Amino acid sequence: MAASEISQRQQNLLRAFLLGYVLLVLVSIATGDPLVSLVVDVVFSVAIVVVGYLVLVNSDGQTLGVTTGVAFVGSGVAQAIGLVTGWPTAETTSNLLLLAGLGLYLYGRVRSR
């Protein structure tokens, strides 16, 4: 998914969200507050599902885009399951799917140049 495929409004929303998320992470690190850490994890879970959805919508059915989007959505869902249940397997699955999604996304970016 190239940046040009996302509207300017979507880019601005993503930037604002990213800034807010980074600020939350910094507050979580600075304070060590478990509630803030939980909020960071929940926001990440939702955000990665949204990113996956955006990748899927903009994939035009191409296998790489669909696979990348599904990896991101799966990561967010696994993260949510891990938060609710505390299952280490769900948390590990979330991390692996996130790494797969990021790797596929970067591969697609490099390949498209």
Notable traits:
globular; 4 helices; membrane; 113 residues; transmembrane helix; mainly alpha; 0% strand
Give a summary of the structure in a few sentences.
The chain has 113 residues and is mainly alpha-helical. 84% of the residues lie in helices and 0% in strands. Keywords: Membrane, Transmembrane, Transmembrane helix.
Indicate how many domains the architecture comprises: 1
User: Poorly predicted ranges (pLDDT <50, ≥5 residues)?
Assistant: none
Task: Look at the helices and sheets and give the structural class.
Answer: mainly alpha
First-last Cα distance: 12 Å
The proportion of residues in beta strands is: under 5%
**Which value, in Å, is the CA radius of gyration?**
15 Å
What is the H-and-E element order? HHHH
The biggest sheet amounts to: none
What does this structure look like?
The protein has 113 residues and is mostly helical. The chain has one domain (3-111). It is 84% helix and 0% strand. The protein is built from 4 helices and no strands. It has helices at residues 8-31, 34-57, 63-85, 88-111. Helix 2 (34-57) packs antiparallel against helix 3 and helix 3 runs antiparallel to helix 4. It is globular, with a radius of gyration of 15 Å. The chain starts with 7 loop residues before the first helix and ends with a helix. The relative contact order is 0.12. The model has no long low-confidence stretch (mean pLDDT 90).
